[in-house]
Design goal:
Elements (H helix, E strand, L loop, with lengths): L19 H13 L5 E14 L5 E12 L5 H14 L6 E4 L6 E11 L2 E9 L1 H6 L6 E7 H7 L15 E10 L4 H11 L4 E10 L8 E10 L8 H19 L2 E2 L3
Antiparallel strand pairs: 1-2, 2-6, 3-4, 4-5, 5-6, 7-9, 7-10, 8-9
Helix pairs in contact: 5-6
Length: about 260
């Protein structure tokens, strides 16, 4: 922490290392004024006691996004984040479970990793933290190292002709262990579907009576397409079965009976 020599007060005696406290104040201020739903963001500088080449502390630009409300949850925030990453040309970011940060609810927090580089954190604010700010509602927050994102961004655009041949889709619901991540499932699917698999979309995560305790059901839509011909059911089934076999072999995933 970098402390000021002549601060105006104790609360402003140190340079900020994160944007989350200020964002929590924004959410709290709106909540106490009976604003039912809020989405907010801040792009600002943070300061870290790591000396740079000039011998001064490191200054870093961060982006903080947060929300609360009836129609808001982890996935609406994640959707906004993924749209931002897409616009910046950052594709294939992974979400890795994170449980060491006191700000976030354990088990409902993830580190955002791209090319083995941590870009930030996303998750549900811990109830104890929300209580400090008199925020009596679930809220979600994402803080990103925007300086690092700018370094890895790829905004070049490449022309791709419209597909000549139709696609075909398969929906799958997989029963997996609770600690199996969506990223690991997606990785196996993409690896085994290479060549014909065009897109993988998560559309549901279910926990309930129809799934054994300690398990969850994760559902994807897999879209297959060939660039040079119309795929037959036999060709799609062959690749699809290899995907399912790999999921079972590597992650113990089994198809859920609907």
């Amino acid at each position: 922490m970098i402390r000021l020599i002549n601060p105006l007060g104790e609360e402003t005696s140190a340079m900020r290392t994160t944007l989350v406290p200020n964002m929590m104040e924004v959410l709290s201020r709106n909540f106490t004024r009976s604003i039912e739903s809020v989405r907010a963001f801040e792009l600002g500088n943070t300061f870290h006691n790591i000396k740079g080449a000039d011998g001064l502390p490191t200054e870093q630009e961060n982006l903080c996004i947060a929300c609360y409300g009836e129609d808001e949850d982890f996935f609406t925030l994640k959707g906004a984040l993924e749209e931002l990453l897409k616009k910046m040309g950052i594709h294939g970011a992974e979400y890795v479970s994170e449980s060491t940060l006191d700000t976030y609810h354990p088990g409902r927090c993830a580190a955002i990793i791209y090319d083995n580089v941590r870009l930030g954190t996303i998750g549900e604010i811990h109830p104890d933290v929300a209580e400090i700010y008199d925020l009596d509602v679930k809220s979600w927050c994402c803080e990103l190292n925007f300086s690092r994102m700018a370094e890895v961004a790829n905004t070049e655009r490449y022309y791709s002709p419209l597909p000549k041949y139709p696609s075909t889709s398969r929906d799958i619901s997989l029963v997996v262990d609770e600690d199996t991540t969506v990223a690991s499932l997606r990785g196996v699917i993409i690896n085994k579907g290479a060549g014909l698999l065009e897109k993988v979309e998560l559309f549901d995560i279910y926990r309930g009576k129809q799934v054994p305790e300690g398990k969850k059901s994760v559902s994807f839509t897999l879209t297959y397409r060939a660039s040079d011909k119309t795929l037959t059911d036999e060709e799609v089934n062959k690749v699809h079965e290899s995907v399912l076999e790999a999921l079972n072999r590597e992650l113990g995933a089994v198809l859920r009976d609907l």
